[in-house]
Amino acid sequence: MAAKRSRSGKARRIRRQLVERALMRLDGERIPITLRLNPRARRLIVKVHPSTGEVTVTAPSRQGLEHAMEFARSEKDWIARRLAHVPPPVVLELGARVPYRGEMAIIRRGEGRRGPVWIDREGEEPVIRVTGETGHIPRRVLDFLKREARKSLDARVTCYAERLGTKPRRITVRDTASRWGSCSSGRSLSFSWRLIMAPTFVLDYVVAHEMTHLREMNHGRRFWTLLSELVEDVRRPQRWLNQHGSTLHRFAPK
Fold first, then answer.
1. How many CB atoms are closer than 10 A to CB 151?
2. What is the pLDDT of residue 254?
3. 96-105: per-residue pLDDT in tens?
4. What are phi and psi of 122, to 5 degrees?
5. 15 and 73 in a common domain
């Protein structure tokens, strides 16, 4: 156990060295900057997330990381223009409209004893009904979305496990920023809970994609052939994620 804790501590120290946080003054305000080290990068790169407004500077080396903030300051005007087009974040409060399984749903107060949160589909648009004090509503809706994501993801993993004749060692559901799903060499799958906001065919595709990696740990011809046996049209969910995926990070921002 002591050795295990030592390795975990070392891994945490390495992660801290790979990601740093800083502040930069822009138009009179101090905005957070994430500095990342990625040896695969060829040069210093600055990015602004189109939906969350997160500013990231990626450096190819530790030496480059030392100059990351200087590089960000040199790109102030470009960063400001990008931030001006970032839509405001959406808090999961009463009256807010959020996507749920590909449909826009409005959050309303609920009455009765059906539970803390449920979906009401009696009207033209789905309604997320929430009980309890107003201050607790964002957390209750977020917990509900995460539970629904977990149930749907588990169900689809079970379905594809039967078809592929294999199953993962573990499934985790997180709030990942850059990947909708992943498969480790240890046969562990990880998914973003935000997939519950996307249409069902998108969630299905991401699960099928990662489950296929349990058979083919690559993106070669055999991988795509096997995946096409599980998903009729792989391009449709890919297009949806390319066009709309980043917008899902507007809702319940970190």
1. 11
2. 66
3. 999 999 999 9
4. -80, -25
5. yes
Q: Strands 188-192, 170-174: parallel, antiparallel or unpaired by DSSP?
A: parallel
Same domain for 213 and 101? yes
Q: Which residue has the higher pLDDT, 92 or 178?
A: 92
Sign of the torsion formed by the C-alpha atoms of 127, 132, 134 and 140: negative
Going by pLDDT thresholds of 50, 70 and 90, the confidence category of residue 147 is very high
Confidence check: pLDDT of 240 > 60: yes
> Which residue is listed with tokens 């999961």?
92
pTM of the model: 0.77
The separation between CA 36 and the C-alpha centre of its own chain, rounded to angstroms, equals: 18
Which token pair is 150?
């977990």
Is residue 33 within 8 Å of 21, Cβ to Cβ?
A: yes
Whole-angstrom Cα Rg for the chain: 21
Helix (H, G, I), strand (E, B) or coil at 60: coil
**Alpha helix stretches (DSSP H) within the chain:** 2-18, 62-66, 68-74, 76-84, 137-164, 200-213, 221-230, 235-244
**113 plus 201 within the same structural domain:** yes
Q: What span, in angstroms and rounded, lies between the C-alpha atoms of 153 and 208?
A: 10
Domain boundaries, position 46: 2-84
Report the candidate in 151, 110, 114, 103 with the shortest Cα–Cα distance to residue 128. Answer: 110
- Count other Cβ atoms within 10 Å, centred on residue 82: 17
Mean predicted lDDT score pLDDT of the chain: 89
Q: Tell me whether residue 241 is in a domain.
A: yes
Residue type, 163: R
34-41 mean pLDDT: 89
